[in-house]
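User: Design a sequence. Structure:
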């Protein structure tokens, strides 16, 4: 089999999605509201969701592992989230005050209890806005002009962090001294010139680069797990914490993917390390738009309007829907569900059972797939080499993984091609067994008619 034969089957089985996409692409740029949503020959058009499942406009049902890019930690329309959002809307009588309301402080208390690195927080509407604001705080605090970020790490769709997320190999330089390569046409060159790119999990190189560039580096921003599923060595994280403190560089953990997913307290709880600032998003909104910046008082308070009458001395932060009651109510319902004894551990257990099953099937069918991840997130890699650094992912046989994705979709499993897998409280043994069945059928098909 090859990708075109798989795409042919995909298309033949989804005439309604194909026809819809044909229409959509004329009036929505590329037919999608976000470039990452596209895949060839066309993305599936969904019309309904039900707990752990998605239903497309051709009537196919899939166990959903995309979960709105990991946001839906309790699955689609969990009854407690539905009730919280409906109750809040009817009791408070609005979807947005555009002003402070009591639920904001309830959420803040929950966050401060789960994330000991937080003294204060601010709410935003997305992860993008959270990383943007965290970087602005760092720049204000240090007065320095550059940021350091890791090759392969994603922090949302703003100019300064759209550097070397997915750099073309021939422009990316040596692995121990990566170059900044813009990920978007149109991002002003200023941002490339003010970006320092670090290799994830390579301590010797990071120590050298950061020491050399300390005078200009305001912040190191990082996904504490590369792409949400590749952990760094504990010693790497410990060294980074110590060196950034020593050099006066603000350490920002972008836990938009990993918050409430690696552990309830995020990857910072897993590593036992407190960053200076943290960006959260996804799960903390319970399926509604949100972002959070939390961290140490000395940074957070720079945005306080109580600080100074002189506007130029306050870090500006605002947003029409910041802290809107529906996102906060849904997020609070999610956190309270997950804090019940055993609730989070059960999702981790189901994730581990699924991973073990996939790994065993890959062995049984003698196919080079392995799972990699922590907590409730993992990915299926088409390589048997260990993956510790971003560039190790070059050994991943993307086309083979893509072939698996097309087969899985035909067998009722969706993570979006080449995407990681996230689990939720709605993924019970029934969904796990159905997914393993889909993997078995897909692996058997790959064995019978090998991928070329
Ligand atoms: C680590 C990380 N940071 C930031 C973002 C951006 O969040 P949003 O899509 O809510 O803007 C994402 C989104 O996937 C992310 O994974």
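Assistant: Done.
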């Amino acid at each position: 089999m090859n990708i075109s034969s798989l795409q042919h089957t995909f298309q033949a089985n989804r005439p309604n999605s194909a026809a819809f996409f044909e229409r959509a692409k004329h009036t929505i740029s590329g037919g999608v509201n976000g470039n990452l949503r596209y895949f060839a020959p066309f993305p599936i058009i969904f019309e309904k969701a039900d707990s752990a499942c998605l239903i497309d406009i051709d009537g196919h049902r899939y166990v959903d592992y995309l979960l709105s890019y990991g946001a839906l930690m309790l699955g689609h329309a969990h009854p407690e989230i539905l009730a919280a959002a409906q109750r809040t809307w009817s009791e408070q009588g609005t979807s947005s005050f555009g002003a402070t309301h009591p639920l904001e402080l309830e959420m803040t208390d929950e966050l401060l209890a789960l994330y000991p690195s937080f003294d204060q927080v601010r709410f935003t509407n997305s992860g993008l806005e959270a990383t943007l604001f965290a970087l602005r705080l760092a720049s204000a605090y240090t007065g320095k002009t550059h940021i350091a970020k890791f090759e392969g790490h994603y922090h949302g769709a703003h100019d300064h962090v759209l550097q070397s997320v997915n750099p073309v190999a021939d422009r990316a330089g040596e692995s121990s001294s990566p170059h900044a390569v813009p990920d978007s046409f149109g991002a002003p060159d200023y941002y490339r010139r003010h970006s320092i790119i670090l290799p994830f999990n390579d301590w010797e190189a990071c120590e050298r680069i950061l020491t050399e560039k300390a005078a200009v580096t305001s912040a190191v921003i990082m996904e504490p797990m590369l792409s949400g599923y590749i952990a760094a060595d504990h010693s790497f994280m410990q060294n980074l914490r110590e060196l950034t403190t020593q050099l006066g560089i603000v350490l920002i953990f972008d836990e938009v993917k990993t918050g409430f997913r690696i552990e309830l307290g995020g990857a910072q709880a897993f590593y036992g390390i407190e960053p200076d600032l943290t960006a959260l998003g996804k799960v903390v909104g319970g399926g509604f738009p949100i972002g959070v910046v939390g961290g140490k008082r000395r940074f957070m308070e720079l945005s306080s309007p109580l600080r100074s009458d002189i506007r130029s001395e306050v870090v500006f932060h605002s947003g029409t829907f910041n802290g809107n009651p529906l996102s906060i109510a849904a997020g609070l319902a999610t956190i309270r569900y997950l804090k019940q004894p055993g609730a989070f551990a059960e999702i981790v257990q189901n994730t581990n059972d699924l991973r073990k099953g996939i790994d065993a099937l890959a062995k049984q069918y003698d196919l080079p797939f392995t799972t990699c991840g922590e907590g409730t997130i993992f990915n299926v890699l088409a390589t048997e080499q260990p993956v510790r650094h971003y560039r190790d992912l070059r050994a991943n046989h993307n086309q083979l993984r893509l072939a698996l994705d097309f087969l899985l979709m035909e067998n009722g499993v969706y993570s979006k091609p080449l995407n990681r897998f996230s689990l939720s409280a709605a993924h019970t043994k029934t969904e796990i067994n159905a997914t393993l069945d889909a993997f078995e059928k897909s692996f058997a098909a790959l064995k019978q008619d090998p991928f070329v």
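The first helix runs from residue 3 to 12. Residues 3-77+342-448 form a domain with the Aspartate Aminotransferase, domain 1 fold (CATH 3.90.1150.10).
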